[in-house]
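Running this now, will post back.
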Amino acid sequence: MKLASFNLENLFLRARALNGETWSEGRKALTAQAELSAIFGKAVYTSADKKKIVKLLGELKLDKSDDGGPFAILRQNRGHLVKRAKAGMEVVAGGRNDWIGWVELKREEVNEEATRNTARVIIDVDADVLGVVEAESRPALVRFNDNVIKGQGGRPYAHAMLIDGNDDRGIDVGLYTREGYDIAAIHSHVDDRDKTGRIFSRDCAHYEIRTPKGHALHLLVNHFKSKGFGSQTTSNAKRERQAARVKEIYDQLRKSADHVAVIGDFNDTPDSAPLVPLLRQTDLKDISEHADFDDGGRPGTFAAGAASNKIDYILLSPALFAAAKGGGIFRKGVWGGKNGTLFPHYPEITKASEAASDHAAMWAEIDL
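Update: finished.
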Protein backbone atom coordinates (compact mmCIF):
# COMPACT_ATOMS: atom_id res chain seq x y z
CA MET A 1 0.00 0.00 0.00
CA LYS A 2 1.25 3.45 -0.87
CA LEU A 3 0.10 6.15 1.54
CA ALA A 4 0.64 9.81 0.60
CA SER A 5 -0.07 13.32 1.81
CA PHE A 6 -0.29 16.36 -0.45
CA ASN A 7 -1.20 19.98 0.22
CA LEU A 8 -2.56 20.78 -3.24
CA GLU A 9 -3.54 24.40 -2.47
CA ASN A 10 -7.03 24.18 -3.96
CA LEU A 11 -8.14 22.60 -7.21
CA PHE A 12 -10.34 25.11 -9.04
CA LEU A 13 -11.20 28.07 -6.78
CA ARG A 14 -9.04 29.76 -4.17
CA ALA A 15 -9.47 32.78 -1.96
CA ARG A 16 -7.96 35.68 -3.89
CA ALA A 17 -5.96 36.69 -0.81
CA LEU A 18 -4.23 33.30 -0.95
CA ASN A 19 -3.75 33.23 -4.70
CA GLY A 20 -1.06 35.87 -5.27
CA GLU A 21 2.49 35.34 -6.42
CA THR A 22 3.65 35.95 -2.84
CA TRP A 23 2.05 35.40 0.55
CA SER A 24 2.49 39.05 1.48
CA GLU A 25 0.00 40.20 -1.19
CA GLY A 26 -3.02 38.94 0.73
CA ARG A 27 -1.66 38.66 4.25
CA LYS A 28 -3.08 41.98 5.48
CA ALA A 29 -6.53 41.12 4.11
CA LEU A 30 -6.55 37.70 5.79
CA THR A 31 -5.54 39.25 9.10
CA ALA A 32 -8.25 41.92 8.84
CA GLN A 33 -10.92 39.37 7.95
CA ALA A 34 -9.98 37.14 10.90
CA GLU A 35 -9.99 40.07 13.34
CA LEU A 36 -13.37 41.27 12.09
CA SER A 37 -14.87 37.79 12.49
CA ALA A 38 -13.74 37.73 16.14
CA ILE A 39 -15.28 41.15 16.84
CA PHE A 40 -18.53 40.37 15.00
CA GLY A 41 -19.24 37.48 17.38
CA LYS A 42 -19.37 39.73 20.45
CA ALA A 43 -22.72 40.27 22.15
CA VAL A 44 -21.98 43.97 22.59
CA TYR A 45 -19.72 46.17 20.45
CA THR A 46 -17.81 48.66 22.57
CA SER A 47 -16.68 52.04 21.32
CA ALA A 48 -13.22 50.56 20.79
CA ASP A 49 -14.74 47.63 18.85
CA LYS A 50 -16.59 50.02 16.56
CA LYS A 51 -13.46 52.03 15.86
CA LYS A 52 -11.63 48.81 15.08
CA ILE A 53 -14.40 47.66 12.74
CA VAL A 54 -14.21 50.92 10.80
CA LYS A 55 -10.42 50.68 10.59
CA LEU A 56 -10.39 47.06 9.42
CA LEU A 57 -13.17 47.56 6.86
CA GLY A 58 -11.14 50.47 5.55
CA GLU A 59 -8.09 48.26 5.19
CA LEU A 60 -10.23 45.87 3.15
CA LYS A 61 -11.43 48.85 1.06
CA LEU A 62 -15.01 48.25 2.17
CA ASP A 63 -15.49 51.76 3.52
CA LYS A 64 -17.30 52.97 0.37
CA SER A 65 -19.17 49.83 -0.66
CA ASP A 66 -19.95 46.33 0.60
CA ASP A 67 -18.22 45.00 -2.53
CA GLY A 68 -15.57 47.64 -3.02
CA GLY A 69 -12.41 45.74 -2.11
CA PRO A 70 -10.23 43.37 -4.11
CA PHE A 71 -10.18 40.61 -1.49
CA ALA A 72 -13.45 40.63 0.44
CA ILE A 73 -17.18 41.40 0.53
CA LEU A 74 -19.19 42.65 3.50
CA ARG A 75 -22.41 40.64 3.72
CA GLN A 76 -25.20 42.49 5.57
CA ASN A 77 -27.99 39.96 5.16
CA ARG A 78 -30.37 41.13 7.92
CA GLY A 79 -30.15 44.47 9.65
CA HIS A 80 -27.11 46.69 9.24
CA LEU A 81 -23.59 46.66 10.64
CA VAL A 82 -22.62 49.98 9.11
CA LYS A 83 -24.10 52.98 7.33
CA ARG A 84 -22.10 55.14 4.96
CA ALA A 85 -22.38 58.89 4.40
CA LYS A 86 -20.23 61.67 3.00
CA ALA A 87 -18.80 62.18 6.47
CA GLY A 88 -17.64 58.57 6.56
CA MET A 89 -18.70 55.13 7.74
CA GLU A 90 -20.47 54.53 11.05
CA VAL A 91 -21.08 51.26 12.89
CA VAL A 92 -24.79 51.26 13.76
CA ALA A 93 -25.09 47.73 15.15
CA GLY A 94 -24.78 47.50 18.90
CA GLY A 95 -23.82 43.83 18.90
CA ARG A 96 -24.24 40.45 17.25
CA ASN A 97 -28.02 40.32 17.71
CA ASP A 98 -28.57 43.57 15.79
CA TRP A 99 -27.56 42.20 12.41
CA ILE A 100 -26.77 39.02 10.48
CA GLY A 101 -23.73 39.00 8.24
CA TRP A 102 -20.01 38.51 7.86
CA VAL A 103 -16.96 39.41 5.80
CA GLU A 104 -16.58 36.90 2.97
CA LEU A 105 -13.34 36.37 1.10
CA LYS A 106 -13.60 36.67 -2.67
CA ARG A 107 -12.50 33.67 -4.72
CA GLU A 108 -11.00 33.34 -8.17
CA GLU A 109 -10.01 30.51 -10.46
CA VAL A 110 -6.73 28.71 -9.91
CA ASN A 111 -4.29 28.89 -12.85
CA GLU A 112 -5.38 26.18 -15.32
CA GLU A 113 -1.85 24.94 -15.93
CA ALA A 114 -1.32 24.71 -12.18
CA THR A 115 -4.46 22.57 -11.95
CA ARG A 116 -3.14 20.21 -14.62
CA ASN A 117 0.22 20.04 -12.84
CA THR A 118 -1.55 19.14 -9.61
CA ALA A 119 -3.08 16.21 -11.48
CA ARG A 120 0.34 15.22 -12.81
CA VAL A 121 1.71 15.04 -9.25
CA ILE A 122 -1.18 12.88 -8.08
CA ILE A 123 -0.83 10.60 -11.11
CA ASP A 124 2.93 10.17 -10.68
CA VAL A 125 2.80 9.61 -6.92
CA ASP A 126 0.12 6.97 -7.61
CA ALA A 127 -0.92 6.48 -3.99
CA ASP A 128 -3.51 3.92 -2.94
CA VAL A 129 -4.57 6.21 -0.10
CA LEU A 130 -3.99 9.95 -0.57
CA GLY A 131 -4.71 12.51 2.13
CA VAL A 132 -5.32 15.91 0.55
CA VAL A 133 -4.95 19.29 2.25
CA GLU A 134 -6.51 22.57 1.06
CA ALA A 135 -9.30 21.21 -1.10
CA GLU A 136 -12.37 23.38 -1.47
CA SER A 137 -15.14 20.75 -1.38
CA ARG A 138 -16.02 17.13 -2.07
CA PRO A 139 -17.71 18.08 -5.40
CA ALA A 140 -14.43 19.73 -6.40
CA LEU A 141 -12.52 16.55 -5.53
CA VAL A 142 -14.96 14.48 -7.57
CA ARG A 143 -14.82 16.80 -10.61
CA PHE A 144 -11.03 16.94 -10.42
CA ASN A 145 -10.88 13.15 -10.21
CA ASP A 146 -13.34 12.49 -13.04
CA ASN A 147 -12.21 15.25 -15.40
CA VAL A 148 -8.68 16.47 -14.74
CA ILE A 149 -6.90 13.33 -13.51
CA LYS A 150 -8.61 11.28 -16.21
CA GLY A 151 -7.99 14.02 -18.78
CA GLN A 152 -4.25 13.90 -18.04
CA GLY A 153 -4.21 10.16 -18.69
CA GLY A 154 -4.33 9.13 -15.04
CA ARG A 155 -6.30 6.43 -13.30
CA PRO A 156 -9.19 8.02 -11.39
CA TYR A 157 -9.71 7.12 -7.76
CA ALA A 158 -12.65 4.96 -6.68
CA HIS A 159 -13.50 7.06 -3.64
CA ALA A 160 -13.30 10.77 -2.78
CA MET A 161 -14.35 12.21 0.56
CA LEU A 162 -14.20 15.58 2.30
CA ILE A 163 -16.00 17.06 5.31
CA ASP A 164 -16.41 20.84 5.50
CA GLY A 165 -14.15 22.20 8.21
CA ASN A 166 -13.94 25.38 10.26
CA ASP A 167 -12.10 27.55 7.73
CA ASP A 168 -14.28 29.75 5.53
CA ARG A 169 -11.56 30.07 2.88
CA GLY A 170 -12.35 26.63 1.42
CA ILE A 171 -9.11 24.92 2.48
CA ASP A 172 -10.34 21.66 3.96
CA VAL A 173 -8.77 18.22 4.40
CA GLY A 174 -9.99 15.23 2.41
CA LEU A 175 -9.19 11.82 1.00
CA TYR A 176 -8.81 9.82 -2.21
CA THR A 177 -8.65 6.00 -2.13
CA ARG A 178 -8.30 3.29 -4.76
CA GLU A 179 -10.64 0.39 -5.46
CA GLY A 180 -10.40 -2.07 -2.59
CA TYR A 181 -9.51 0.62 -0.05
CA ASP A 182 -13.03 1.22 1.16
CA ILE A 183 -13.94 3.99 3.59
CA ALA A 184 -15.64 2.11 6.41
CA ALA A 185 -16.22 5.01 8.80
CA ILE A 186 -15.76 8.77 9.06
CA HIS A 187 -15.37 10.84 12.21
CA SER A 188 -15.10 14.64 12.27
CA HIS A 189 -13.54 16.69 15.05
CA VAL A 190 -14.62 20.14 13.86
CA ASP A 191 -16.45 20.81 17.12
CA ASP A 192 -13.73 19.60 19.50
CA ARG A 193 -13.15 22.19 22.21
CA ASP A 194 -10.89 22.81 25.17
CA LYS A 195 -10.95 25.54 27.82
CA THR A 196 -9.80 28.10 25.21
CA GLY A 197 -12.44 27.24 22.62
CA ARG A 198 -12.68 25.39 19.30
CA ILE A 199 -9.43 23.57 18.62
CA PHE A 200 -9.05 22.81 14.93
CA SER A 201 -8.61 25.50 12.30
CA ARG A 202 -9.90 23.06 9.69
CA ASP A 203 -10.53 19.55 11.07
CA CYS A 204 -8.80 16.45 12.30
CA ALA A 205 -10.69 14.17 9.93
CA HIS A 206 -10.60 10.51 11.02
CA TYR A 207 -11.13 7.95 8.27
CA GLU A 208 -11.27 4.21 8.91
CA ILE A 209 -10.19 2.42 5.73
CA ARG A 210 -10.43 -1.30 5.00
CA THR A 211 -7.49 -2.54 2.94
CA PRO A 212 -7.67 -5.33 0.34
CA LYS A 213 -6.00 -7.66 2.89
CA GLY A 214 -8.71 -6.91 5.42
CA HIS A 215 -6.73 -4.62 7.73
CA ALA A 216 -8.27 -1.54 9.32
CA LEU A 217 -6.22 1.61 8.69
CA HIS A 218 -7.11 4.60 10.85
CA LEU A 219 -6.07 7.83 9.16
CA LEU A 220 -6.07 11.24 10.84
CA VAL A 221 -5.75 14.00 8.21
CA ASN A 222 -4.75 17.42 9.55
CA HIS A 223 -3.92 20.99 8.60
CA PHE A 224 -2.69 22.89 11.63
CA LYS A 225 -2.79 26.66 12.15
CA SER A 226 -0.44 28.51 9.80
CA LYS A 227 2.24 31.04 10.68
CA GLY A 228 0.94 33.32 7.94
CA PHE A 229 -1.14 35.80 9.90
CA GLY A 230 -1.81 36.64 13.52
CA SER A 231 0.92 36.91 16.14
CA GLN A 232 3.54 34.18 16.44
CA THR A 233 2.59 33.62 20.08
CA THR A 234 -1.09 33.12 19.22
CA SER A 235 -0.32 30.86 16.24
CA ASN A 236 2.11 28.72 18.24
CA ALA A 237 -0.41 28.30 21.05
CA LYS A 238 -3.08 27.22 18.56
CA ARG A 239 -0.83 24.62 16.94
CA GLU A 240 0.18 23.25 20.35
CA ARG A 241 -3.49 22.85 21.30
CA GLN A 242 -4.09 21.07 18.01
CA ALA A 243 -1.11 18.77 18.45
CA ALA A 244 -2.20 17.95 21.99
CA ARG A 245 -5.74 17.07 20.85
CA VAL A 246 -4.48 14.89 18.00
CA LYS A 247 -2.28 13.11 20.56
CA GLU A 248 -5.40 12.43 22.67
CA ILE A 249 -7.30 11.08 19.66
CA TYR A 250 -4.32 8.94 18.64
CA ASP A 251 -3.80 7.55 22.14
CA GLN A 252 -7.48 6.61 22.34
CA LEU A 253 -7.35 4.86 18.96
CA ARG A 254 -4.23 2.92 19.92
CA LYS A 255 -6.14 1.20 22.72
CA SER A 256 -7.93 -0.87 20.10
CA ALA A 257 -6.08 -0.31 16.81
CA ASP A 258 -2.54 -1.09 15.66
CA HIS A 259 -2.55 0.64 12.28
CA VAL A 260 -2.88 4.40 12.79
CA ALA A 261 -1.36 7.19 10.69
CA VAL A 262 -1.39 10.94 11.31
CA ILE A 263 -0.69 12.91 8.15
CA GLY A 264 -0.95 16.38 6.67
CA ASP A 265 0.45 19.89 6.89
CA PHE A 266 1.38 20.74 10.50
CA ASN A 267 2.83 24.15 9.58
CA ASP A 268 5.83 23.71 11.89
CA THR A 269 9.17 21.92 12.07
CA PRO A 270 10.06 18.70 13.93
CA ASP A 271 12.06 20.60 16.57
CA SER A 272 9.29 23.11 17.32
CA ALA A 273 7.71 23.43 20.76
CA PRO A 274 4.09 23.37 19.45
CA LEU A 275 4.52 19.89 17.94
CA VAL A 276 6.08 18.33 21.06
CA PRO A 277 2.84 16.63 22.22
CA LEU A 278 2.54 14.79 18.93
CA LEU A 279 6.16 14.18 17.95
CA ARG A 280 7.74 13.59 21.36
CA GLN A 281 4.94 12.32 23.59
CA THR A 282 3.57 9.50 21.41
CA ASP A 283 5.07 6.39 19.81
CA LEU A 284 4.47 7.81 16.32
CA LYS A 285 7.43 7.84 13.92
CA ASP A 286 7.84 10.03 10.85
CA ILE A 287 8.38 8.10 7.61
CA SER A 288 11.30 10.46 6.95
CA GLU A 289 13.17 8.61 9.72
CA HIS A 290 13.07 5.36 7.72
CA ALA A 291 16.41 4.10 6.43
CA ASP A 292 15.02 3.89 2.89
CA PHE A 293 13.38 7.30 2.81
CA ASP A 294 14.53 9.45 -0.12
CA ASP A 295 14.27 13.22 0.37
CA GLY A 296 16.47 14.05 -2.62
CA GLY A 297 18.97 15.76 -0.36
CA ARG A 298 16.42 18.29 0.90
CA PRO A 299 14.57 17.48 4.14
CA GLY A 300 11.98 20.24 3.74
CA THR A 301 8.60 19.75 2.10
CA PHE A 302 7.69 23.37 1.36
CA ALA A 303 9.12 25.74 -1.27
CA ALA A 304 12.89 25.22 -1.72
CA GLY A 305 12.94 22.25 0.64
CA ALA A 306 15.17 23.64 3.39
CA ALA A 307 15.09 21.94 6.78
CA SER A 308 13.28 25.00 8.14
CA ASN A 309 10.45 24.19 5.71
CA LYS A 310 9.85 20.63 6.87
CA ILE A 311 6.15 21.14 7.67
CA ASP A 312 4.37 18.15 6.03
CA TYR A 313 4.24 14.78 7.73
CA ILE A 314 3.37 11.11 7.52
CA LEU A 315 3.50 9.79 11.09
CA LEU A 316 3.06 6.05 11.59
CA SER A 317 2.15 3.90 14.57
CA PRO A 318 4.80 1.26 15.50
CA ALA A 319 3.09 -1.53 13.55
CA LEU A 320 2.81 0.63 10.43
CA PHE A 321 6.39 1.87 10.68
CA ALA A 322 7.61 -1.72 11.09
CA ALA A 323 5.74 -2.62 7.89
CA ALA A 324 7.10 0.37 5.96
CA LYS A 325 9.47 -0.38 3.08
CA GLY A 326 10.48 3.22 2.41
CA GLY A 327 9.14 6.53 1.24
CA GLY A 328 10.08 9.84 -0.26
CA ILE A 329 9.33 13.45 -1.18
CA PHE A 330 8.03 14.16 -4.68
CA ARG A 331 9.03 17.68 -5.80
CA LYS A 332 8.36 17.81 -9.55
CA GLY A 333 5.26 19.95 -9.02
CA VAL A 334 7.13 22.63 -7.02
CA TRP A 335 8.89 25.73 -8.37
CA GLY A 336 12.20 25.60 -6.51
CA GLY A 337 13.83 28.94 -5.76
CA LYS A 338 13.48 32.29 -7.53
CA ASN A 339 14.11 30.82 -10.98
CA GLY A 340 12.75 27.33 -10.37
CA THR A 341 16.15 25.73 -10.88
CA LEU A 342 16.91 24.17 -7.49
CA PHE A 343 15.54 20.77 -8.51
CA PRO A 344 13.82 19.24 -11.56
CA HIS A 345 10.19 20.14 -12.15
CA TYR A 346 7.67 19.38 -14.88
CA PRO A 347 8.52 21.11 -18.19
CA GLU A 348 4.94 22.39 -18.22
CA ILE A 349 5.83 24.60 -15.23
CA THR A 350 7.36 27.72 -16.79
CA LYS A 351 6.77 30.12 -13.88
CA ALA A 352 5.89 29.99 -10.19
CA SER A 353 2.16 30.52 -10.74
CA GLU A 354 1.98 27.31 -12.80
CA ALA A 355 3.38 25.11 -10.01
CA ALA A 356 1.10 22.38 -8.73
CA SER A 357 1.68 23.66 -5.20
CA ASP A 358 4.30 25.23 -2.95
CA HIS A 359 4.24 21.90 -1.10
CA ALA A 360 5.87 18.68 -2.25
CA ALA A 361 3.93 15.46 -1.88
CA MET A 362 5.13 12.88 0.67
CA TRP A 363 4.64 9.14 0.38
CA ALA A 364 5.26 5.92 2.29
CA GLU A 365 5.27 2.36 0.96
CA ILE A 366 3.79 0.02 3.55
CA ASP A 367 3.28 -3.74 3.43
CA LEU A 368 -0.28 -3.81 4.68
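The CA atoms of residues 131 and 175 lie 5 Å apart. More later if anyone needs it.
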